[in-house]
Specification:
The protein has 135 residues and is mostly beta strands. It has one domain (7-113): Beta Barrel (OB fold (Dihydrolipoamide Acetyltransferase, E2P)). 11% of the residues lie in helices and 49% in strands. It is built from 2 helices and 6 strands. It has helices spanning 59-68, 110-114, and strands at residues 7-13, 18-21, 27-40, 46-58, 74-87, 93-106. The chain has a 5-stranded mixed β-barrel. The longest helix has 10 residues, at 59-68. The chain is globular.
């Protein structure tokens, strides 16, 4: 049976990208991306939630991200979700979810102004109930 592991996000860089090299000399760049979700509560109050993602790019894509990205830049990222685990210095098990980027598109900042306030689909999450989902 086939499986799919695909993440797509559009958001703003929260800090400058950090490039480093593996012992074999392969470049790897990591950066944080913030996405926002706006919604209206049942009491009519507007709210916004921010979700942070760690994105990792390798090789030529890593070099391009390091060269062209800057804090605050709006980007589109496609990739796969990867969970890394390790033991901390105090002996506790730690983990981190990352998006390993396959494709990064640098978006102009005016693109955000052209999107509907509720998101790309134009459908507010409050209008969808579990019964509306077709699977």
């Amino acid at each position: 049976m086939a499986s799919v592991n695909k993440m797509i996000i559009i958001g703003n860089l929260g800090s400058e990208p950090e490039m480093r090299f593996t012992p074999n000399g392969n470049p790897v760049t990591s950066f944080r991306v913030a996405t926002n979700w706006r919604y209206t509560t049942s009491q009519g109050e507007r709210r916004e939630e921010t979700e942070w993602f760690t994105v990792v790019a390798w090789n030529k894509l890593a070099e391009q991200c390091n060269q062209f990205l800057a804090k605050g830049r709006l980007i589109y990222v496609e990739g796969r979700l990867r969970t890394r685990t390790w033991d901390s210095q105090d002996g506790e098990k730690r983990f981190r979810n990352e998006i390993v980027a396959d494709h990064v598109t640098f978006l102009p900042s005016v693109a955000a102004a052209s999107l509907p306030e509720e998101g790309m689909s134009g459908i507010e999450g409050d209008d969808v109930s579990p019964e509306d989902i077709p699977f």
